[in-house]
Amino acid sequence: MSRLPRAAAASLVLALMAGCSEQSSLVPTQPKTMTATRALESSSPIWSQEITGVIGDGADYGIFVPANWNGDVVFYAHGIIPPLAPVALPGPQDWDNASALRDALGAAGYAVAYSSYSENGYAIKDGIQRTHQLRGIFTSKVGNPRRSFLIGHSLGAQVVQALAETHPDQYSGALAMCGVLGGTRLQTDYIANVRTMFDFYYPGVLPGSTLEMPVVITDVVNQIQLPVLGAVMAKPQGFQLIAFSQQAQLAGKDATELLTSLINALAYHGIGVNDLMARTHGHSLFDNSGVTYSSAIPQLVPNVAYTDLNHGVRRYTATPDALAWLENNYEPTGNLQIPMLTFHKIRDRLVPFRHEAAYKIKVEAAGASANLLQRAQNDFGHCDFTAADMLTNFQDLVTWVNTGVKPQQ
Questions:
Q1: Angle, to 10 degrees, between the axis of helix 184-201 and the axis of helix 354-365?
Q2: Which pLDDT value is given to residue 57?
Q3: CB neighbourhood size of 406 (10 A)
Q4: Where residue 22 falls among pLDDT bands split at 50, 70, 90?
Q5: Cis-peptide, bond into residue 201, ω within 30° of zero
Q6: pLDDT in tens, 157-208
Q7: For residue 389, how many other CB atoms are within 10 A of its CB?
Q8: To bridge 389 with a disulfide, which of 123, 139, 220, 385 should be the other Cys (CB 3.0-4.6 Å)?
Q9: Residue 337, φ and ψ in degrees, nearest 5
């Protein structure tokens, strides 16, 4: 293996020893719904109506109307749920804090509606359909709203992005947070590259491979985190090469954050790869056949350090039908005809911040920059915003819609 500068490798070992002194800090925040039944709960007295039901395809829905309803409704789209978790409405313990956002919106006078979708996993197309169906359900149960807004987290941000781009006549504005806005392929390539590089530097540490997981991941700490930590501590050079590669660019300002991002990517892969492969009928949606792995920070890690990786890494070739699935599920057009405000942590541990730059390029190419406002929070995490932060951004979106004047960055 090509050697890293000794000083860099030595400093990394010291950082890892310090960062790993408390292993619990590296546990990826994962939905508690992985093993527990999710239930709709509202402890707030602000709601005058709480309506629940089931769409014919098995998707649950919830509608909440406050006593001081201002006539506007927010259609909310939740983030990804592990494929084997129960299909149920977002609950108060979900990692995107949907119930806190819902109650904050209700206190501000907005009705809120959301769906469980009819399936879990990378159900982007189903999420788009079920969230859009809520419009008709809301009208039949409550009445015609004055205006309709969209809010989504993570995969749900991609849902509202799609609705904003394809149905601009039916929504007034969209708030997309921590979202997969650069397209599904950008996200799946990131996860697949991390797993592929990890397997090269640490063969046999994790079960399966980039395109398969032969066991069910139910315990991220014991099945993913601890094996990864042990491998990285024994051979930190491989971790550094993954972290600072152009293809991964793990989020983090120190060893603990970088390790957390690595573990999150590998856990996301382990929990979701079989779901994705089922959606492409077992055909490869990842293609690194022509990729030259390189450094994102050549002044720290020279490109020559990737020589062995490029010679020995496992190569995959995507099939046309799998690439067509990626294109349809969902590749943004950038054709924004309504205001969209995005909000993303710069050091997002799961959905890389570079999704924002990728989407900006598409919006600019479509001549729609006037309808896009991107905001960043200089922090580490994924979708763990406070209810106050989320409400402030939404209120700024509404002011933008009301006045036609784009808010400050």
A1: 150
A2: 82
A3: 16
A4: very low
A5: no
A6: 999 999 999 999 999 999 999 999 999 999 999 999 999 999 999 999 999 9
A7: 15
A8: 385
A9: -110, 0
How far apart CA 105 and CA 73 sit, in angstroms, is 9
Q: Which range among 87-96, 203-212, 327-336, 370-379 shows the weakest confidence by mean pLDDT?
A: 87-96
Provide the Cα torsion 22, 23, 29, 35; round to 10°.
-130
Cα separation, 349 vs 124, in Å, equals 20
Strands laid side by side in the 60-66 sheet: 47-54, 60-66, 111-115, 72-77, 147-153, 173-177, 340-348, 372-381
pLDDT score of 93 more than 90 = no
Which of 45-67 are b and which e, b meaning 16 or more Cβ less than 10 Å from the residue's Cβ?
ebbeeeeeeebeeebbbbbbbbe
Cβ distance 344 to 179 under 8 Å? yes
- Give the model confidence (pLDDT) of 120-155 as tens digits: 999 999 999 999 999 999 999 999 999 999 999 999
Number of neighbouring beta carbons within 10 Å of residue 310: 13
The pTM of this model reads 0.91
**Range name among 29-43, 48-62, 155-169, 172-186 with the lowest pLDDT average:** 29-43
Q: Which of 84-88, 122-126, 185-189, 266-270 has the lowest mean pLDDT?
A: 84-88
Those residues with Cβ within 8 angstroms of residue 254's Cβ, 6 or more apart along the chain or in another chain:
15, 19
Instruction: Supply 66's token pair.
Output: 């406050």
Among 7-21, 179-193, 204-218, which stretch is predicted with the lowest mean pLDDT? 7-21
Is the pLDDT at 35 greater than 80? The verdict is no
